[in-house]
Design brief:
single chain, 244 residues, mainly alpha
Length: 244
Amino acid sequence: MNVENKQHSMPFPATSWTRVMHYQEGEEQAARSALEDLCRTYWQPVVNYFQAIGCDPEEARDAAQEFMVQFATPGQGFDRIDPAKGRLRSYMKQAARHFIVKVREKANTQRRGGGTESISIEENEESLGTEDEEASVSYDQSWAMTVLEAAFAKLRDEYAARGKATLFERIRPGLLEPEDGGALCHQLAEAFKTSSAAMSLEIHRTRKRLARHLRQQVLATVETEAEAEEELRYLMRILAYGRA
């Protein structure tokens, strides 16, 4: 299963605990579709995590490919996922961490014949230290950007359906920024030959739709409304941190 080639060409999938259940319980076609969605969604966050943990880009992609294949093997990762275990984001991150620790343990074991002392899984866990904290942040930032791009994709489709795709691309850069006192509205109003008041209303409504789409994406990966609100706040903090 090669998920890398599709990462940037496919739209963000409707990944959720519901999709996981479709994979576990659905008919063959539905299960395959859900599985591909899950792999595409978490491919880039896992690649970024492995790079931050010390893998070079090629090693990170190879490790992510192996991780996804293993996780998708019947009886393995996706078959064992349970919504009761918490957020899908966190579950996948912990699974990736455990995977890379085992990869390092295997590499050390293979070097044992060459005179290198084997390092245990526990020692590998401890050796991650601050490196793992940085990798965790990288993973969460990648996840947040994936969710954001999903919401943007939905907005883009809405604008395209109205024949206003160009307007969306001009509005998009300012959607996550604080209100700017009308400068953006004035510039866009002139560009699209409308009033500043009309453009202000357009941007206000688009920001509200963006918030709704973000919430829908996050809600799909948790069990309760309260968890969704907490996860959404975390997503926004991660995005703000990434732009700082």
